[in-house]
Q: What sequence folds into this?
């Protein structure tokens, strides 16, 4: 038997609107992260620290910006930890898609089919998975946020660090392989 709720039921049209707004905000996080990545590219010298530490940290923190807004200002639009993780993942997919277009159209002249496939499969999956992990961590904050109680960022810190490490190891592996004449595709 369901527990009685002190809140009146939300009409289905309102729930649908909340879901659509939540999706739009999550997608905006990917766009915002692109601006952060561009600032990172122009503001920090290149090299291993950029590739293995700064880039993954900046990107993993920025991709779920839309979800941060929802948690802070529209928490009623969020219903579960899984939803928070999926919305964060959507921000990662938008980021990866824009990054792929920039990379394949501006950075690489005449990319080969293997590189195109690699970028649209492996790179996209890595960004989606890392953003999903960050979202799982953010989802741990949802119950306290819904109750209007203080929350501890430490509760999601491990998830963010895991995403940064995975992203950094991926970047380091790709850099190592390509630097020493290997091919990824």
A:
């Amino acid at each position: 038997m369901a527990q009685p709720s002190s809140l009146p039921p939300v009409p289905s049209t309102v729930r649908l609107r909340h879901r659509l707004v939540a999706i739009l905000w999550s997608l905006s996080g990917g766009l915002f992260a692109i601006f952060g990545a561009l600032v990172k590219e122009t503001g920090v010298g290149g090299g291993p620290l950029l590739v293995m530490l700064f880039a993954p940290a900046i990107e993993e923190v920025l991709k779920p910006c839309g979800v941060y807004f929802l948690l802070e200002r529209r928490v009623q639009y969020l219903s579960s930890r899984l939803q928070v993780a999926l919305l964060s993942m959507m921000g990662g997919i938008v980021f990866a898609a824009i990054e792929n277009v920039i990379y394949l159209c501006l950075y690489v002249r005449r990319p080969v089919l293997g590189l195109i496939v690699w970028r649209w499969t492996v790179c996209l999956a890595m960004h989606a998975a890392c953003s999903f992990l960050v979202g799982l961590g953010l989802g741990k904050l949802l119950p306290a946020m819904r109750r209007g109680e203080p929350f501890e960022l430490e509760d999601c810190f491990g998830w963010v660090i895991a995403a940064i490490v995975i992203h950094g190891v991926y970047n380091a592996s790709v850099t190592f392989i390509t630097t020493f004449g290997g091919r990824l595709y």
